[in-house]
Amino acid sequence: MRKxxxxxxxxxxxxxxxxxxxxxxxxxxxELSAQVEGTGFRETYLRSEYLSKYADPDPTDKTNRIRRAxxxxxxxxxxxxxxxxxxxxxxxxxxxxxxxxxxSFVAFTRRTISSILxxxxxxxxxxxxxxxxxTGHRRTASHPAWKFSDEADATEQATKFVDVIHRxxxxxxxxxxxxxxxxxxGAVLFTVPKNALIERCACKEPDLNMYLQKGVGNHLxxxxxxxxxxxxxxxxxRGLAEQGSLTGDLATLDLSSASDSVTIxxxxxxLPHLWFEYLNDIRSQNVLVDGEYRRTEMFSSMGNxxxxxxxxxxFYALARSVLYxxxxxxxxxxxxxxxxxxxxxxxxxxxxxxxxxxxxxxxxSFVEGPFRESCxxxxxxxxxxxxxxxxxxxxxxxxxxxxxNQLRGWLLKDDGSGLPVVYHDQVGLWLAxxxxxxxxxxxxxxxxxxxxxxxxxxxxKRLVRVTGKMVLPERGKYQHWHSTKRNRAxxxxxxxxEAENTTLCCRLRRAPRMWSSEADKRIxxxxxxxxxxxx
Length: 535
Prior knowledge:
Blueprint: H1 2-11, H2 23-30, H3 41-49, H4 62-88, E1 95-97, E2 100-101, H5 102-117, H6 144-149, E3 152-155, H7 162-168, H8 170-174, E4 181-184, E5 187-193, E6 199-204, H9 207-225, H10 235-247, E7 250-256, H11 264-270, H12 273-282, E8 286-289, E9 292-295, H13 307-326, E10 333-335, E11 338-342, H14 346-355, E12 359-360, E13 371-374, E14 377-380, E15 383-384, H15 397-410, E16 412-414, E17 420-422, H16 427-434, E18 461-469, H17 474-484, H18 493-498, E19 500-510, H19 518-521, H20 525-534
Parallel strand pairs: 3-4, 5-8
Antiparallel strand pairs: 1-2, 5-6, 7-11, 7-12, 8-9, 10-11, 13-14, 14-15, 16-17, 18-19
Helix pairs in contact: 4-11, 5-13, 9-13, 13-14, 15-16
């Protein structure tokens, strides 16, 4: 009997609890914003934004979407070539600002950047890897543990730093990191879905270059933090955007194709010579496009480990120079191409950025009026009006839960007292979505999850995604842990957790016995009345 039961357990087939939604439910989610009532700014804004990032691309049109993306990338390179030529033939007596010559402006900007960067020491070569694809590792085999263990791709210019890496991190040399190098000509352009009309371009970098770039990226983030620019915290910009929408004193600027617009000559012009030479050596100077390597006019692209930090540094320094020469005091904050500066200096900064090849996104930049937007936070007269988005066709139960939780979060705002203020006239819409979710999944506490619906009451069940373990090389796992863990006393269990292949399939499991926060438990009076009536 026991043997029979044991065999039955072994042959049991897992039932996927993340079931597919009916067409009627899918239609309801697609048309959700149209059901939002009211004529206020908050409601109108949600209706306009809800599907603004929606992409349900036609699989048969993928070739055309890729072609459009590559053509856009090529066009930007043509603009970059013009910017490089303008900087090379620069007129130092040109007034970039009223009564401010380019010579004076560049000199001040260089001093700002030099003070932030500090000296170029050997320890900066100690970097790391992300889980992204490289020229030597496909996305399905791109875990850092493999990159530390396998043969590494590298550009010729980057190979000269292998000895420095081994000197600064003897463990990597001991375990043979970069002992087998495959020299390549540069990065490889690829595309990812963006919307129904066009893909988005990015680059796969060679492995050794990625490692070195990551070291520079980490250094830039640490040094910018000394200036109050925190590249690990977007909430700073969101808080300043809220302040700007209330007082009008701060402007929020956003740039188009910012990372692809950082040109070689701009970096050469503003960075100390040794820093430029090092970054120039570890970047990919060529990119494989349409089967041929192309010498780039841009300095680095999306996929390069220091691009985000470098553009943040450049935009901060250029903005600081504008404020200095215009005699403007006020808060300055930068997060990539999300720039916040005093409104009185915003138009001057836009002009300077244009001179150096950057285009301001007029639809997402706000200098005047009561609205500001930065780092995902949207504010109108000091009120949080941040919308939520449906970015792809909802097909599974987890999609329904995600939208319902996002709607619940949107129905709340903080009036400054820390207590939620409810938009009660929209609660019926949320109740309708709630009733489409099995009651066993009610009682969640985290609005960011799509595996449990946030409601008042005690939790019962939750969805848990089925994961498959990847078998990683032990040597590579240890080197990855050693390069990322600050507290060496901790066991490298996170490395194993990172090596999970997550699927859409979900199991149903008992939820932890926990309650929502006090605020969440009394979000909707209508909800509590409805629950009481059901009982």
